[in-house]
Amino acid sequence: MTQYTELILNYPERQKYLSKIGFERENITGIIENISSTDYTELILSEKLTNWLAFKWKGYSETSKYTYIIDNGSNITSVWENFKDSTRREIKKAEKQLTISTTEDVDLFYKINQKTFDRQKIKNPYSAELFKKVDAICTEKQCKTIYVAKDGEGNVHGSVYIVWDNNTTYYLAGGSDPEYRTSGAHSLLMWHAIKDAANRNHVFDFKGSMIESVERFFRGFGAIQTPYFRLRKYNSKVLKLILPLLYSE
Question: 75-106 in b/e burial notation, b at 16+ Cβ within 10 A?
Fold first, then answer.
């Protein structure tokens, strides 16, 4: 359920750029040396760290991935104006028939989330038990909201699960009922999440996707395409043969 493996570097104040790069090389190399004995290592760095040269020099391979980020949430009018025209129309249509509320019912969310995977005939990558553990921790830390979209008859059209840290709000997961896919619920839910992120003065991270249809949906919100890096190193020849067969990119 975790998108990134963040490396936290305590940069000295007022560093020159060349000193910053050297500082990263020295400290990241130290981190690598502490994990070098593993049979397989995989790290997915957030967009905050773009310097992965130290990993390359230690034998790691890299795959670029992409997320979409809204970083001017404090100016919510500008955010709305940057939406694709069709996205704005879909939200306006949905507002006429749907009401957005919040809930603590994680079972309801997972039920709606599961319907999306069922429609696509693919396996849900996380179990209900795992998601409940995540929800319990997020509830304890008061860093999540479950949004639900319902019509006037109480039918649930969709739901999204949003989490945040001190600076960023993340779209963790979502789903919609196939029976109401054309209602625009998912776009309206995302709009509410983006506005709440702006109220927290947060960056909004869609958490990316390499799936074409999902990427197109995220891009419709006028977010900035932002690269991040997946780094891997095999010290086991057996795992180098087996793992690519078990897990997709």
Answer: ebeebbebbeeebbebbeebeebbebeeeeeb
- Nearest Cα to Cα of residue 49 among 7, 10, 19: 7
* Residue 199 CA: distances (Å) to CA of 167, 168, 240, 246: 12, 12, 46, 41
Burial zone of 209 (CB within 10 Å; 0-12 exposed, 13-18 middle, 19+ buried): middle
Q: What token pair was written down for 192? A: 């509410």
Q: Report d(CA 81, CA 216) in Å as an integer.
A: 17
193, amino acid identity: A
Residues 6+ apart with CB under 8 A from 154: none
Three-state DSSP state, 117: helix
What secondary structure letter does DSSP report for 60? -
Q: What is the pLDDT of residues 139-189, one digit of tens each?
A: 999 999 999 999 999 999 999 999 999 999 999 999 999 999 899 999 999
What residue ranges define each of the domains in the chain, with the CATH number in brackets?
A: 17-66+228-246 (no CATH), 74-201 (3.40.630.30)
> Which distant-in-sequence residues (6+ apart) come within 8 Å of 105 by Cβ?
146
CA–centroid distance for 137 within its chain: 18
pTM of the model: 0.88
Residues, the chain: 249
Q: How far apart are CA 243 and CA 42, in angstroms?
A: 11
